[in-house]
Structure formats: structure tokens, C-alpha cells
């Protein structure tokens, strides 16, 4: 269960979670500042082999000393290119007691620039299985989804999400999902028509579809907070099919308007990576690094997705875009921030300031 701001503050006061040098909590997360950036001493294939063989034997300090090399970041910043792969640590030190675990995901505004700054999906902070106590500055992945992006020291391109105890997807309970839709607490509309449970369900998953307007990355160096008109170009795929080559980065929107009830957080992911793997493999990865969608007090509207082509293929309007789930949020209903993307109607570029 994801901790809302009231419980983040409550459990911090009780000493169950601790975050040194933290900023302000948002509704259910905390922005993290970039402190140290590392590159691999070995080629990535050698690194992966070494990691598989020795990671369980090494402390984090040994891992950094043996396998990584710190990268100095100048005042002007450093360009992250599509071929680059880095690891990074936040300025904040995180401590968690038993029955708490956390993950780092990319902030949405940075994900729209193609930034992927998350903890590995198999290496959460703390253990989802054994709930061990931990005190750590986590090592996280940093690369881009096909874009060139300028980053600087203390950039807040990632956020920490903390969970308590078990955290199953409620889509395992189709009855609960249907109940929320029938009661109009979970609202999903397409062409202004409210959809029924059966209209978004496909086998064991619930799907959103792609709107006709997409924005394709031009190849420019993206400078956060300083967008240029030619960073992306717009295409209406409702009028023409478009072929996108491998590794192309593009922004799309859901054809569906979504409003998530209080007490829940939406979760979107690649359409072939949820519970069911019987769905055909799609040609793009979507939204994997910034998967969380806030409830109605924070966000409602058409969801923007960040995508990278896995192989060259034709993209069309109305194709399945992503699988959609819900997760429970432990909250008393206090929300101190609204998303800057609330009420967006189509694919929306980064609004970093």
C-alpha cells in the first residue's frame, strides 16, 4: 500500500521511515536530488556478467569502488546521450524499518524528456519479500529513452515512493474494479462517453488506447525548463499511418479520459508486461519509468505516455497503448499539491520551469 503524505509524516515521526536532508513531501512521494553520478569501469556486457556473479558478495561501497567510476558534473551540466548508461545516487539518505519498502521512479516532467532515472524493478529499496530494515543512499539507473538531455547537479529528476506491507494490484479483484466503475468512482471516458468495465477489459488486463495526435522527438539536445519549438514535431496518425524506426522516442496520449478515486493511485505500464502475457508484443515500451497516476484531487484527464520503439513498425490511432491498474493508497484525504498536467486533453510535453 502506497503511503500518502499524512502517513509519510506520521511514520517519519514514529521513526519507521527516515529521510535525511529531504525536501517537502508531495501527495504520495518525495522528489530526490542528484548527488553523485557514476559510469561503468567495464563494458556493459562484462559489467552485467560480473554483477550476476558477484553482486551478492559485495557491500554497496565495495560495488562502487570495484565496478564504478564517479563522473564529475560541471556547473554547466552534462549531456546524457542515448548510448550512455549511468548509475546515480541521491543526496537524501533513506532508512526504512521492517514492513516498509520503497522504489525510485522518474518524475513525469523528466520522463517526457526521455529520462529514465529509476531503481531497478528487481532491486527495490528494502525487500518486498522479506521486509528487512535498511539505511542507504540507493544506487539507481540513469539513461534516456532515445533522447539527448542536459542534467545538472541536484536536479530533481526522480521521486521516492514508499510502500507499507503487501501491495497487490487490485485488478486481481475484477469484482472491485467493476464495482468502482459501476459506482462512477473510477471514471474512464472515450469520446466523452463513460465506458463500462467490459469495454476496457481484455482477458486479464485493462487497456487504454492511443489518441491520434503524437509528438515525435527531433534529435535536439533537450534542456529541462527551456523547451524549443523544434524539440518535437506533431503528427496526426488519425489521418495517416506512420512508420517509426527502432529507438525513436515519441509522446502520445490516451484516447481515454481517466479519473481515479481517492484512496487509489493509477499504475500504467507496457501493454505486454502486466498479468497476462498472451497479448501480442507491441513495438514500443511505454511509461515504464514514470508509472504512477494521481487520484482525482491531484490529476484527472487524458494520460500522457512516453514511448520508445523496440523495433521499427507502423503506429496507428486507437491501437492498445498501455495496461492500466490501480494500487491502494494509505491516506486520510490530504493532498497538498495538484499536478501541473491536471485536465490535459492530449499528449502534453514537459512543463518543467
Describe this structure as you would to a colleague.
The longest helix has 11 residues, at about 45-55. This protein has 6 helices and 29 strands. The chain folds into 2 domains: about 1-165, Distorted Sandwich (Deoxyuridine 5'-Triphosphate Nucleotidohydrolase, Chain A); about 170-330, Deoxyuridine triphosphatase (dUTPase) (Deoxyuridine 5'-Triphosphate Nucleotidohydrolase, Chain A), CATH 2.70.40. With about 350 residues, it is mainly beta. The protein has helices spanning about 5-15, 45-55, 60-65, 110, 175-180, 195-200, and strands at about 1-5, 15-20, 30, 35-40, 70, 80, 85-90, 95, 100-105, 115, 135, 140-145, 150, 160-165, 185-190, 195, 200, 205-210, 215, 220, 230-235, 240-245, 250-260, 265-270, 285, 290-295, 300-310, 315, 320-330. Helices cover about 15% and strands about 40% of the residues. The strands form 7 sheets. Strands 15, 16, 19, 21, 23, 25 and 27 form a 7-stranded antiparallel beta sheet that branches. Strands 1, 17, 18, 24, 26 and 29 form a 6-stranded mixed beta sheet that branches.
Amino acid at each position: 500500500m502506497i503511503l500518502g503524505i499524512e502517513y509519510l509524516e506520521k511514520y517519519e515521526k514514529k521513526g519507521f521511515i527516515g529521510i535525511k536532508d529531504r525536501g517537502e513531501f508531495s501527495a504520495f512521494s518525495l522528489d530526490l536530488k542528484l548527488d553523485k553520478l557514476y559510469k561503468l569501469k567495464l563494458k556493459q556486457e562484462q559489467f552485467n556478467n560480473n554483477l550476476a556473479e558477484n553482486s551478492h558478495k559485495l557491500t554497496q561501497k565495495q560495488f562502487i569502488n570495484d565496478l564504478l567510476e564517479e563522473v564529475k558534473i560541471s556547473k554547466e551540466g552534462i549531456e546524457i546521450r542515448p548510448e550512455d548508461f549511468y548509475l546515480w545516487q541521491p543526496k537524501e539518505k533513506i532508512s526504512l524499518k521492517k514492513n516498509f519498502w520503497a522504489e525510485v521512479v522518474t518524475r513525469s516532467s523528466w520522463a517526457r524528456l526521455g529520462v529514465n532515472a529509476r531503481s531497478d524493478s528487481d532491486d527495490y529499496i528494502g525487500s518486498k519479500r522479506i521486509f528487512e530494515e535498511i539505511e542507504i543512499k540507493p544506487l539507481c539507473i540513469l539513461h534516456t529513452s532515445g533522447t539527448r538531455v542536459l542534467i545538472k547537479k541536484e536536479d530533481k529528476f526522480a521521486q521516492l515512493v514508499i510502500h507499507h506491507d503487501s501491495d497487490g494490484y487490485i485488478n486481481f479483484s475484477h469484482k472491485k474494479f467493476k464495482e468502482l466503475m459501476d459506482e462512477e468512482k473510477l471514471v474512464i471516458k472515450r469520446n466523452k462517453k463513460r465506458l463500462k468495465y467490459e469495454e476496457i477489459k481484455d482477458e486479464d488486463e485493462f487497456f487504454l488506447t492511443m489518441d491520434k495526435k503524437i509528438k515525435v522527438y527531433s534529435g535536439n539536445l533537450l534542456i529541462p525548463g527551456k523547451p524549443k519549438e523544434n524539440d518535437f514535431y506533431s503528427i496526426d496518425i488519425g489521418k495517416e499511418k506512420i512508420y517509426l524506426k527502432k529507438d525513436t522516442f515519441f509522446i502520445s496520449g490516451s484516447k481515454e479520459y481517466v479519473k481515479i478515486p481517492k484512496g487509489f493511485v493509477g499504475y500504467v505500464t507496457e501493454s505486454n508486461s502486466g498479468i497476462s502475457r498472451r497479448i501480442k508484443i507491441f513495438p514500443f515500451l511505454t511509461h515504464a519509468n514514470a508509472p504512477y497516476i494521481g487520484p482525482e484531487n491531484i490529476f484527472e484527464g487524458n494520460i500522457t505516455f512516453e514511448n520508445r520503439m523496440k523495433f521499427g513498425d507502423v503506429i496507428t490511432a486507437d491501437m492498445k497503448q498501455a495496461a492500466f491498474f490501480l494500487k491502494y493508497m494509505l491516506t486520510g484525504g490530504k493532498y497538498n499539491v495538484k499536478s501541473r498536467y491536471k485536465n490535459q486533453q492530449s499528449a502534453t510535453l514537459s512543463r518543467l520551469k
